[in-house]
Amino acid sequence: MSEIRKAAVIGAGVMGAGIAAHIANAGVEVLLLDIVPEGATNRSAIAEKAVERLLKAEPAAFMSKRSAKLVKAGNIEDDLPALAECDWIVEAVVERLDVKQALYRKIDAVRKPGTAVSSNTSTIPLAALTEGLSDGFRRDFLITHFFNPPRYMRLLEIVSGPETDPATVARVSAFADVKLGKTVVTCKDTPGFIANRLGTYWMQLAVGEAFALGLTVEEADSVMGRPFGIPKTGVFGLLDLVGLDLMPHVQGSLERALPKDDPFQKTVRDIPLIRTMIETGLIGRKGKGGFYRLN
Ligand code: NAD
């Protein structure tokens, strides 16, 4: 079984940057790539800024200064050929099927056969992600769904398809278990897998009900945090951490994928305040703040 000696993470946002840092914590060199910002003189500015943020992250994303040196920032245009040197490519770009599929075509054109490619999608089924892609790509493709923050959240959901090579799944699962310290849960290829199918459901309901009951964010989180077995952030704090902008993507993706008579369709509804917050840039910790103000 070939080892993972070099990896790439594409998408240097909340998740991609954190995943890259944690792969580096395992002593593996990682290329962290993002798009070329329009009109920018520095073509790798997005990934470089992400590395700067990682160095200041609280709690710390890197285990040591040595790990930090293993993350190389770049961009998906100039550094695309370098994907041919990688043994594992993690896609962590925006939660949009069209964007992800266009990227897979580019990756498939340069990767060496047998290189594992995985998506960090929260909700998009593997069957949809791989539709129309080459047989070779489908053999090497799986979903590795990390949670935020990737260094600290132990759960990793893994989804494979009927065409995924079991050796690829075994290689990535073993690396995640032994090197990344993850508890790997194998999920069926169902909308939202396990965590987001159940998680989005209760989070949306909890937020809606908290407003309906006139509770403050602090009152709701004081109960819906540790006392409930949820991280100390509570529900609103967790939304700030995840990024409020992700919620409509996750909700929309589940609405499209689930049957019309599924309870999710009747119970989970748009929360106007969340829409307004997204429109004004209050998307949580990665923006100007969210339910909680940034200091
Ligand atoms: P984000 O918006 O913070 O970052 C996405 C990054 O991808 C951006 O920097 C963007 O410039 C980049 N990007 C977009 N198109 C690209 C392309 N074609 N090539 C290269 N880079 C591109 O998003 P995020 O919250 O990190 O989410 C990324 C993925 O992880 C999504 O699929 C999301 O559903 C999933 N996810 C998110 C969380 C979370 O807590 N935020 C948790 C688990 C899974």
UniProtKB/TrEMBL annotation:
Chain segments annotated as transmembrane: none
Domain of life: Bacteria
Domain 3-hydroxyacyl-CoA dehydrogenase C-terminal: 192-293
Residues annotated as signal peptide: none
Residues annotated as domain 3-hydroxyacyl-CoA dehydrogenase NAD binding: 6-190
Protein name: Putative 3-hydroxyacyl-CoA dehydrogenase
Organism field: Azorhizobium caulinodans (strain ATCC 43989 / DSM 5975 / JCM 20966 / LMG 6465 / NBRC 14845 / NCIMB 13405 / ORS 571)
First and last residues shown, out of full length: 1 to 295 of 774
